[in-house]
Automatic annotation (TrEMBL):
Protein name: Basal-body rod modification protein FlgD
Composition bias, Polar residues: 1-12
FlgD/Vpr Ig-like domain residues: 106-172
Transmembrane segment boundaries: none
Species of origin: Defluviimonas salinarum
UniProt keyword annotations, A-Z: Bacterial flagellum biogenesis, Cell projection, Cilium, Flagellum
C-alpha cells in the first residue's frame, strides 16, 4: 500500500506542475499578443488603416486557442485523476498472484505453466527463453492445455540460474507447424503503478503487465 500511495503522490505532482506551467504560458502569450496588437495599431498606415474586423478576428482566434489549451489541460487532469482512482482500487491486488504470459521469476522452485496448443495440434514443443530473449530450453510437451511443470532445466537437463523466463508453445499437426502461442504462469504482484496509459501491475522480478492481460487471479501461495 505504501508503494501504491507513494507512486500516486509522485504522479500527481507532475500534473499539478504541468497545470501551473500551462497557466503561466497562456498568460505570457496573451501579454505578448496584446503588445504585438498594440504595436500593430500604432504603426498602421494612416491612409490605409486596418479594418476593425481584422482586430476582432485576431482576438477571436487567440481566444479560441487559449480555450483549447485550457480544455486540454483539464482533460489531462481528469485523465490523471481517473488513473489514480483505478490504481487505488487495484491496491488490494498487491500480494496476490496473477496469471499472464509475462516473464516469470524462477528462483529455484519449479514453475507451473499453462499452455494453449493450437486447435488440431498432435504435437507441441515447449520453448523457454531467458531475460535476454535467448532460447535456453526446447522440449517436447503433451498436446494438451493441462498445466505442466517446468523444473528450471535446459534442454540437456542441466539447472538454469535464477532469473526471469518466458515461454512459448510451438504447435504441429502431422509434422507441419500450426503456430506459436504464449504460455502463461502465475506470479506474485509486487506493486501497482500508474503508467502512461493507466494503471499497470508489476510482478516479482520486475515484469510489467497491463491489467487487461491478466487472465486469472488467486491468493498468494501454491494452489
Amino acid at each position: 500500500m505504501d508503494a501504491v500511495s507513494q507512486t500516486g503522490s509522485q504522479a500527481a505532482a507532475p500534473t499539478a506542475r504541468a497545470r501551473e506551467q500551462h497557466g503561466t504560458l497562456i498568460n505570457s502569450d496573451f501579454q505578448t499578443f496584446l503588445v504585438m496588437l498594440t504595436t500593430q495599431m500604432q504603426n498602421q498606415d494612416p491612409l490605409n488603416p486596418i479594418d476593425s474586423t481584422d482586430y476582432a478576428a485576431q482576438l477571436a482566434t487567440f481566444s479560441g486557442v487559449e480555450q483549447q489549451v485550457k480544455t486540454n489541460t483539464l482533460l489531462e487532469s481528469l485523465s490523471s485523476q481517473l488513473g489514480l482512482s483505478g490504481m487505488a482500487q487495484m491496491a488490494s491486488w498487491v500480494g496476490m498472484e496473477a496469471r499472464s504470459a509475462a516473464p516469470t521469476l524462477f528462483d529455484g522452485a519449479p514453475l507451473t505453466l499453462y499452455p494453449a496448443p493450437e486447435s488440431g495440434a498432435d504435437q507441441t514443443v515447449l520453448v523457454a527463453y531467458d531475460s535476454q530473449g535467448r532460447e535456453v530450453m526446447r522440449s517436447p510437451a503433451p498436446a494438451s492445455d493441462e498445466p505442466l511443470v517446468w523444473a528450471g532445466t535446459d534442454s540437456r537437463g542441466g539447472p538454469l540460474p535464477a532469473g526471469l523466463y518466458s515461454f512459448r508453445l510451438e504447435s504441429y499437426a502431422a509434422g507441419e507447424p500450426l503456430g506459436i502461442s504464449d504460455v502463461e504462469s502465475f506470479a506474485r504482484i509486487a506493486e501497482v503503478q500508474n503508467g502512461p496509459d493507466g494503471p499497470v501491475v508489476v510482478l516479482d522480478g520486475g515484469a510489467v503487465v497491463s491489467p487487461s492481460d491478466i487472465k486469472a487471479m488467486r491468493g498468494a501461495g501454491p494452489q
